[in-house]
Write a structure and sequence with these properties.
The complex is a heterodimer of chains A (244) and B (316). Chain A is of the alpha/beta class and 244 residues long. Chain A has helices spanning 42-49, 72-78, 95-104, 113-127, 142-154, 172-189, 200-206, 224-229, 231-241, and strands at 4-13, 16-26, 31-35, 57-62, 65-66, 80-82, 160-164, 192-196, 209-214, 217-222. Chain A folds into 2 domains: 28-55 and 70-79 and 158-244, P-loop containing nucleotide triphosphate hydrolases (Rossmann fold), CATH 3.40.50; 89-157, no CATH class. In chain A, the strands form 2 sheets. A 6-stranded mixed beta sheet of chain A has the order 6-7-8-3-9-10, sandwiched between helices. In chain A, strands 2-1-4-5 form a 4-stranded antiparallel beta sheet, with helices on one face. The chains are: A alpha/beta (244), B mainly alpha (316). The structure holds adenosine-5'-diphosphate and magnesium ion (MG). Adenosine-5'-diphosphate binds next to β2 and α1 of chain A.
Chain lengths: 244, 316
Amino acid sequence: MALLECQEVTKNFGGLMAVTNVSLQLEKGEIVGLIGANGAGKTTLFNLISGFYPPTNGSIRFEGDEIAGLKTHDICRKGLVRTFQLVRPFHNMTVWDNVMVGALFGVQKCKNVSRAKEEAMKVLEFTGLHEKKEIPAKELTIADRKRLEVARSLATKPKLLLLDEVLAGLTSTETTEAMKLVRRIRDEMGLTIFMVEHVMKAVMGLSDRLIVLHNGEKIAEGNAKEVSKNPTVIEAYLGEKLHM
Amino acid sequence: MTTSKLGKYLSGLGLLGLVIFLCVIPFYSTDYIVSVLLDILTWIGLTQSWIILSGFTGYISLGHSAFFGIGAYVMAILWLKLPYPLIILISAMSSMTLAFAIGFPVLRVRGPYFVILTLGLSEFAKYIFINYEVNVKGTVGRILLGVPNIRTLYFSLLIIAIVTILCAYLIKRSRFGYGLFSIKEDEDAAESLGIDTSIYKWLALGISAFFPGAIGATMALRRTYIDPYSVFDPIVSFQIIVMAFFGGIGKLHGPVLGACILTLISEFFWARYPHYYLIILGVILVFIVKIMPSGILGIFDLFGKAGKVVKFVRRK
Ligand SMILES: Nc1ncnc2c1ncn2[C@@H]1O[C@H](COP(=O)(O)OP(=O)(O)O)[C@@H](O)[C@H]1O
Ligand SMILES: [Mg+2]
């Protein structure tokens, strides 16, 4: 059974078809990249999967259960969590508290604050944020905010992590670091990762498989080589943008 | 580590001392002093209850005057029919029930719209009671006879205020509290981390409405005459907000401090220049918003920081 299965998912914003009839499957332990030009519908697809709004049509199954139409917090508690393209840390909380909220709620639901603090500490160490644990989130650099966004999601103990452009806006050293983290999340924590990414080299290097969206439709799927040779993809947008 | 433990121990002792002092003082002071302290306790309880909703979740309520008014009216209706602590409890439950009843639709509205909606609802509640008085009962207000003496009322309010502070304190340190702070920081992010934001806000509103109900009930006995205009007075809500922000809503003792200081100021001005009081309240509000967004406590923080800088420079 696939971990996540979308069948003919459609989202219509008052006439604008942001996502049209998208079907896809994610297997346990995969890193799958979701690519496509700006406005292709990637974030919208993430919003549908994570329950920010219900799909106009179609079914979304997580571990076999229908989750389309469930509330976001219920989906999170089932083990599916997302990060935001424009990071949204709790600015006035410390890094530690931010991550602790993930541990308090989410799948594992630590019953008390001190237990959650311990759990959060483990995640802080894993993500390399432990030295900044007492700093309010608003004082972090962009790279660290993105890292915090990931750490906070990890603290909920998910099975599937949706990453929305966590590499965007990072320097090349920061990108390498972040890529290493993504790979470790899969290899060491055993999570499945579905990531939207614009940095082609990174997403091609990280992903086992790529899914390409164009104007809300899925136009191609496969490994990096297959996708970059796909004529529809080249015609649609890769040709001008992809310099491999 | 040890100094912070010692600090906690000392502040705990200080708190205990304060409570003992507040328990003993009414037996050694005039009625006037007791009445001022009673006012202070009232405002401490009201601001602290407001903090549970508005301080923790960021949903600024201008509706707490309605919860106060409901409590006062339930007391007026049941007075002499039941034992008085029981009526206080029923009043509190009534306010809470009302809050739960309106909670879900009201809390869907965010930001300034929420503020205006709560103001509108509390005015609406006022007119329902005006209508009830005039058309159903054929009266204007109610007189409460045979009320307990001022010291009894003082102790009732002391208990209510302590329970309110304790409740806010326990919530603040709990899982529930962190859920509420997350909502204040970013509701969507909170939801995405597994927090049932609708239920959390709803519970916070209900708990927050409980205490003004109890306080309103007690104050009805203190005033001995109530009518809808006086107990549903929107000034109550405004005053709560000014006190809370004046003290600083980031910490629990901020609003307590704000309530103490502003009650004393208002005591002074009501007696001498009643018409200027509201103007002064307004000026204070503008001053806080513009100049010291973290309230009086913020000023202390500044001193603290300045002290650290001085120490640092000296060491160099
Ligand atoms: N909440 C919304 N309401 C209306 N239109 C939206 C909304 N969210 C996204 N869209 C539109 O849907 C399309 C896809 O957007 P998005 O999913 O953000 O693209 P991507 O993440 O691939 O850049 C865009 O045309 C965008 O303007
Ligand atoms: Mg996007």
